[in-house]
Amino acid sequence: MIQMYHVDMRYEGGLYALRDISVAVERGEFVFLTGSSGAGKSTLLRLLFGAEHPSRGQILVAGRNVSRMGRNQVAELRRQIGVIFQDFKLLPERTVFENVAVALEIAGVPRREIRARVWSTLKRLGLGHRLDHRPRALSGGEQQRVAIARALVNDPPLLLADEPTGNLDPELALDIMDIIADAHARGTTVLVATHDPSLLERHRFRHLTLDKGRLIGDRRPELFQSGAHRSLSPGS
Amino acid sequence: MTDSSRSMRRITTGIRSGLRGMRSAPLVFFISVSTMAVGLLLLGAFMLVVQNMRGSLERVGDEFSVVAFLPVGVEPTPSEVAGLRKRLEGLQGVVKATYVSRSEALERLRSDLGKDSTILEELVDNPLPASFELVLGLDTRTPDTVRDLAAKARNVEGIDDARYGEAWVEGYSKILRGLGWVGLALGGGLALALGVIIAGTVRLAVYARADEIQIQRLVGAGAIYVRLPFYVQAVIQGAFGAVLAVLLLYGLFRSGLPLLSDPIQFLIGRTAPTFFGPLGVLGMVGIGIGLGLAAAVVSLFRVEDP
Fold it and tell me: Measured between beta carbons, which residues in chain A are less than 8 angstroms from residue B10?
């Protein structure tokens, strides 16, 4: 689903946010992206949904080269990727229903189908009774569930989540992670950036570790039992 | 689901989004329409002045005429008058040639002089020549055609000279041309200034909706989807602003006419000023829509990532 080859992300002034990242994520995988603040987790996700272009290297998402995409192609790609953010990014003046429907409207889905799909997605996430509420009337956990509903309503093959539980208390965080894990169980490839160790403990999925823009670890679930994991040398 | 039906749905969603944007921010809509209306009111007032000045000058142009004189002292016979009339009416652009005898010419002069006509009593003989007044067709009443026609009339056998008020016609021609250029420059300047103001309000609307645009982009909105609501708003604001401007202008036109009779008379003479006709009103609405749309296109083009 995702292939990155020797990707650098360098900002003006010569500062590297990512350096020589090469990694592949298979279709249907669940991968945690871990590392301390400033390690480059968000930058890596931003590269994957075309918000930024790499300074060097190639990025393939679903077989398409994101690093060379124009604006229209990026828009088309994003209709097939669900993205979740720490700060939810909901439209405060729109209802829960409208916030979720926007993804389908942009995809050009007929209105009747939009109603049915938004309703069933919100119901699945326990928000069936909140359709007409505005985001400010919801708790943090509910707001994040709306954001997840918006990301999943299109049945995207790939879901990217940038610190999706960062603003939530631990109990709600586990609840949100369960929803994301459920999406994975339905076949969605998932990449979650987090620095919360409790999530990694609870969900035994592959995790990639970044440090100062370099990929320094790639730990796979089959190695968890033995406690072993493959450490990557810088630049590998 | 075909790509074209998806695109059509995106367009209708974009239009709905534009309408919703106006409903959700009525104050912004009101301010934008008012700004547009004030700007168009100025532009419309200027266009109205130019229209009336041009109309006045064109009416003056209707009075263009050419007078073909016979040699001094010649009194033609009726058959000679008929022959000359036939030849003069045969010239292209001449609708009618009216004969003015020497005695009629003297009578007219006497009438024009009024109480000073006593000076004519000193004359021993009538010094005025007989002449033909040539009435011109509507399409011939331009300075160039009048000049050409006078030259042709001079070449008609039996005609000594032809006059058309050369200095006056040339001056009129210059005024009309000058008014055209001044109108273009001032009108263009006003339209440009209005366009800049509207572009500013569109950009403010873009910044006010920056979060919404960012979210739309994140879930895959293309440039057209993001921009279409602003285009829709610009068109509607332009139309509303223009209608409001026309109504205000009409109100001012009606209420201001009696107060401004002196300056109006100075500008356009004694003729009654006229307001825009249906085409003029449609033109104003068209200008409003066009300016709004152009300003939206330019301002969104200049915004890095709307």
Answer: 105-106, 108
